[in-house]
Write a structure and sequence with these properties.
alpha/beta, 3 domains, 45% helix
């Protein structure tokens, strides 16, 4: 009944329509019949040409929407919008102009902006010009890594900048062959991990520790800060000596040996690489062993934190015959070219 009413209304309104609109509606109806005749089974399959035909007729005659039967009006409108987007995407494509820079150069710009947080586009652009790259500063700014907050250094950079002014000290116990206890005392600089002082005593009093600090640091070579634990041995005499030398005393928190990690790691290396393999006879024997190990540690032993170099930097030898020299009776060896 409703379809009949719609048909009657369409017949009554047809004299008032223009011939072009009637021809457009007839074209839409005929094309829908063509699509339905192509259907073998299932729902009708529309090709891109069919979609383009319906979209163009809708563009010129929006009144064809009521005569669309095999597709929904919102589907046709969606096709039209998708075509509009593709058209303007094609219109906005780059045609000529400045060519894109190479992938390697883009990666280099990102690397520079990541490794140098305080550099901006002008600074990176200057470095690229000195490296022989011809690139605009605007392109550098385009490919830089964007940051949310203000530039800031990493903790690793902060510690490296302050390491030359920091040293650490600690005591460790060594038993002898007669089960007596000897005390070793070490001081290490954090910058190059160099063992600046090593001492041995049977009675580690505060006066002895203060004297070791004085002998370890001359007036022109004292660090700014000295890290230590809260042992009772470091009494008023030690703190007064540090203040007189111009060194600021930095005791760690109670029961927190990880805060003095550099000295603890050094003592662990001394034990693992030397004392665990030797039976100490007396104080003089321990002093000689630790002196030999200190020479090996500073001048021969390579460190991963120093890019596989020794605290006292070793020169790379590329010519000559390789020869080995025994250290600590053959416990370690040094390889050199002669």
């Amino acid at each position: 009944m409703i379809a009949l009413i719609c048909f009657v209304l369409a017949v009554l309104a047809s004299p008032f329509k223009s011939n072009i609109r009637l021809e457009a509606e007839n074209a839409v109806l005929r094309h829908q019949l063509i699509v339905l005749r192509r259907k073998l089974k299932g729902r009708a399959r529309l090709t891109n040409n069919d979609r383009w035909f319906f979209v163009q007729l809708y563009r010129w005659f929006p009144s064809i929407l009521p005569v669309l039967m095999i597709i929904r009006p919102e589907t046709l409108v969606g096709w039209h919008r998708a075509g509009f987007r593709r058209y303007w995407r094609w219109k906005s494509c780059r045609r000529g102009g400045r060519p894109q820079i190479e992938t390697e150069l883009r990666a280099l710009i990102r690397q520079m902006s990541t490794e140098n947080l305080l550099w901006g586009a002008p600074r990176i652009h200057g470095e690229l010009l000195k490296l022989g790259f011809s690139v605009a500063q605007s392109s550098v700014a385009k490919y830089m890594v964007k940051r949310r907050g203000p530039p800031s250094q990493e903790w690793r950079t902060f510690l490296r900048n302050h390491a030359p002014d920091i040293a650490a000290m600690d005591l460790f116990v060594v038993p002898t062959i007669g089960f007596k206890l000897l005390y070793g005392f070490v001081i290490i600089r954090l910058d190059r991990r160099d063992l600046v002082w090593i001492g041995v005593t049977t009675n580690p009093a505060a006066e002895w520790v203060a004297r070791q600090i004085t002998e370890a640091f001359p007036w022109d070579g004292a660090p700014r800060y000295l890290i230590r634990d809260r042992d009772r041995i470091y009494g008023t005499v030690v703190t007064r000596r540090l203040r007189a030398t111009g060194i600021r005393d930095k005791p760690i928190a109670p029961a927190s040996p990880w805060q003095n990690c550099f000295a603890e790691r050094l003592i662990g290396s001394i034990r693992r690489e030397c004392l665990d393999h030797i039976i100490v006879l007396d104080e003089e024997h321990l002093r000689r062993i630790l002196k030999n190990y200190a020479d090996y540690y500073n001048g021969v032993r390579t460190h991963p934190s120093l890019n596989k170099d020794a605290p006292v930097s070793r020169q790379v030898q590329r010519s000559g015959v390789i020869n080995s020299r025994a250290i600590l009776g053959g416990l370690h060896r040094q390889y050199v070219r002669i």
